[in-house]
Structure formats: C-alpha cells, structure tokens
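Protein modeling request. Please complete all fields; requests missing the sequence field cannot be processed.
Requester role: graduate student
Desired output: 3D structure, token encoding
Chains: 1
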Amino acid sequence: MSKPGAAKKKAWSAAAYAALIIGSIISLIPFLWMLGTSFKDPAMVFTDPPQIWPKPWLWSNYSQAFAKMPFALYTFNTVRITAISMLGQILSCSLVAFGFARMRFPGRNILFVTLLATMMLPAQVTMIPVFKIFSSLGWYDTILPLTVPSFFGSAFFIFLLRQYYMTVPHEMDEAARIDGANTWQVYYKVLLPQVKPALATLAIFSFMHNWNDFLGPLIYLASPAKRTLALGLYAFQGQFSTDWNYLMAASAVVMLPLLVLFFVGQKYFIQGVVISGVKG
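Delivered output (280 residues):
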C-alpha cells in the first residue's frame, strides 16, 4: 500500500496539472478563434452562438488578404529592421556584459547599478526627447531610429548575459591567457561559445520585440512604402474594418514566424532564462 503522504502528493500533482491544462485551453481560445476566423465566410464571423471551426474552410481568404496588402514589401521591411537590430543587440550586449563580468576597473559596480536603474525608467518618459534628437539628425522616416539604438545595448540583455558569463569558470580565461590569448580572443574564442543558450535567448527576445514592434514604426515611419507588418495590419484594419476573415488571415501569417522560432529555440530559451539567475 502506498503511504498517505505519497497519495496526497500525487493528488496535488494531478490537481496542478489539471489547472495548468485548463488554463492553457482558456488561453488558446483567442488563438483558435483567430485561426478559425481566417478560414470563415464573412457571414459566419459573428454567428450566435459563436463557432470556432468554419464550415466550409475558405483557403482563398489568405490569397485575398495578400492581394489587398503589399505583404511582401512589409515583410521585407520588417525582416530588415529585425535582422539589423538583432545583430546590434548581440554584438553590443555581449561586449558590454563581458566587460562587467570579466574585467576589473574602478567604478564597475556603480556603473552596473546605474545601468540597471535605467530599466526602471519608462520608455514614455524619454519618447519625446529621443524623437527630437532623431528628428534633428534627419533620421525621421528612415529605419535608423529603429536600428541604430540596438548597437548601444539594452540593460536587460546586458544583465542577462553578464549573469551567464559569471557562471563560466575564470580558470578558462586564465588558461587561454597562459596560451597567449589577449582579451579580445578570450571574449570571442573562449566565452562566446560557452554562452550560446543566453545568446539564443537574447536573439529570441530581440526578434519578438522588433517583429511585433508597433509604436516605434508608428512614430518614425511616415511613408507607406516603409511600413512594417505591424503598421500594415493596422492600416489594413482601418481600410477593411469589416473584413475580419482577411484580417485574421494576415494576422495568422504574421504570427507564424514567432511560433516557429519559439518551438525551434525553446530549449535554448528556457535554459538561458533559468541559468541566468543562478549566480549573481
């Protein structure tokens, strides 16, 4: 016979799993409604009672949505901004985090605390001053305000990588220096290969932010030809406000790369988040 404590533990585990499953199903309902609506006839979108699965399935909604919006152009604009920003974040944040984790210099801790303090400042506070700076530089209606700041680092990503760097033994640095490696070689030959999970986490977060970014392009991009997918969906909604099936089809396609990226990189994503908080 099993002990009462073991039976009680199994009951709590079963209840926890049941609660998680129910919560997951509830959170998936909006996604399923969006996916089902993307295949529906317009007359079936707001039926009473609601129907999640369409009858019949209209695959032509996707081709119709692409015909109503320059989807290829908006995708190119979004991919370009996202790729440049990801590259900038990886280069800048990995370098700055390396300095805070491995190098000794006066005021290092004060600078690091100051860096973390910037995370407490809402972006809305600096939005107008930053806009005026970029406008005075002649960067309005260009992708520069959306890409150049990424080459100056992000406090959250620097903190994440710095925590991960500190889990790597210092003996590896010392062994490399004994073999004749300089500081730059220690950075990109010794440490960077050790922090691939953290870099993958950074890349996923950066991709999600830039791919879904709406406020930045809305503020800095004025030309329709420079719109991103987020702006394109907003304009699509304003122009075809009654064509919910087409809007949901376009939204599903825009969301697809995020789902693929997460499922492909979720191992590195979860490992990077967990290990980043192990050592302070």
